[in-house]
Amino acid sequence: MDYQFYDTYSNTKKLFTPLDPSNVRMYVCGPTVYDYAHVGNARPVVIFDVVYRMLQLKYGQDHVCYVRNITDVDDKIIEASNSLNEDISTLTERTTKYFHSDAEYVGALKPNFEPKATDHIAEMINIIEKLIEKDHAYEAKGNVLFAVNTFKQYGKLSGKTLEDLIAGSRVEVVDYKKNPADFILWKPAKENEPGWDSPWGKGRPGWHIECSAMSEKYLGQTFDIHGGGQDLTFPHHENEIAQSECCNDKKFANFWMHNGFLSIEGEKMSKSLGNFITINELKDKFQGEVIRFNMLLTHYRQPLNWTEKSLQESKKILDKWYKLLGTAEQPLASAKELISEIMLKALADDVNTPQAIAELHQLYKAAIGGNQKALDTFYNSCKFLGLFNSTSHEWSTRQNKAVKIDENLINELILKRNTARSGKDFPEADRIRDELLNMGVILEDKDNQTTWKLK
Ligand SMILES: [Zn+2]
To answer: What is the pTM of this model?
Structure first.
């Protein structure tokens, strides 16, 4: 079955033909790790997980390479580290674990590679040096900037001209830039900021160069699909294209796939509106599959309106589906040949998940009427979409595998344990340590300080 994906770069739905069917390559921009992921962050995690599963089905599990990076150096991280008074690497390691726990919660498969930006500084410096050599970049006051007017196609992905960008003042105007739209490849590290030695002094990379370097290292100079949220189109992806194509004189990615925005109860999600929802806090009320299913009800390119009502409805549907699973004679046959062709056809048409789910409803109806073949197809199709990861019993008793992280509770327990220890009540201290361990939290005592991490 042929796949068609909508390519943002050409603004058309195109037939997907990989460069090399024995090594199909996809890069998706991952999180900047300094806090819990919100539901908007989870949308690309779920959507590109479906794309990954589709690619694996068609080309074979061992013939798809999915890379999703971790941005662990960034202004926001430095800010958070200062305000929390927490070491940067402790903060990024801790919040990377949150991200992993959330991704697992919503049923996303692990990517093949998950490179961290700080492990690839040398590769970034290498690209920047090449760009300077080719006159696409210049040094100014310890910064290295990309000269946008050296790249004719700049703005093509986001459909903007240089004039639009400057007039819209979406670019930072500073005196050392040759053109106000030039963007940072490398910047000097201020005192107490993380920095690496480079030909331009101690500094750190700009955000965009991170993805150019990591995608090239794991996927090569040209690869099949580059994905991410629509909000990344400009400037992030536009700048990635400029850097990589000018450095290598080759097309960067053959397909650009972007998921649409997510709003909460019809409003833009923002901390100031107080409608910021993290995946971690949803764990109290909803199983991960409810979150996943609710996300897939909307086509990935459409704006998604996240509402409590829709989550409740998604939960009701899955409750009903799991009930059917519980009444079926176990174990059900499991085979990829049993996945619904109609559902796959819907997915093959630019990942049409609402259409795919409509087919699941049809299969459910047939299965509940006692049709065994429909039940097998229903089961395998749901599995393919990343559902039915629990047994019917686990589902009804809400035995979720992922751990809900309640920092306040953890800190409270650590405090109690320390009080017990200083009062020499060691049995109580040990009991609290075990209680935390049961929650998936491991304590470490060092230099009179107790830190914690997830199992
Ligand atoms: Zn990126």
So the answer is: 0.88
